[in-house]
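A note on notation is needed here, since sequence and fold are reported together in a single record. The reader may check this reading against the record printed directly beneath this paragraph.
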Amino acid sequence: MIQRRQVGIVRVARFGSLGLSLALPSLASAQTSPFMTGATALQTNILAWLTPIAVILVMALGAMAMANRMSWGWCIGAILGIAIAFGAPQIVTWVRGMFGV
């Protein structure tokens, strides 16, 4: 008798949770992750700091080029660094798309 009652309670609990998840799909999917929220905030913060630094770097490279004190390696390195820093979200999306993630 006790086993039938426990099985009945388990069935009610299963159907109740199924009904609740169908009634509230936002709770069932739970697609927001604390990791993604933190990663997005970190990315925004880094880009906010990096923007004036990149501008100052370009100005310094221009001044060094005007004084004829710069090698092309520094210029190419700065351009690639700025492109990678500001294009990181697009690069990650592209790599994830390549591997189907």
Q: What stands out?
A: DSSP finds five helices and no strands in the chain. Residues 38-101 form one domain. The longest helix spans residues 34-66.
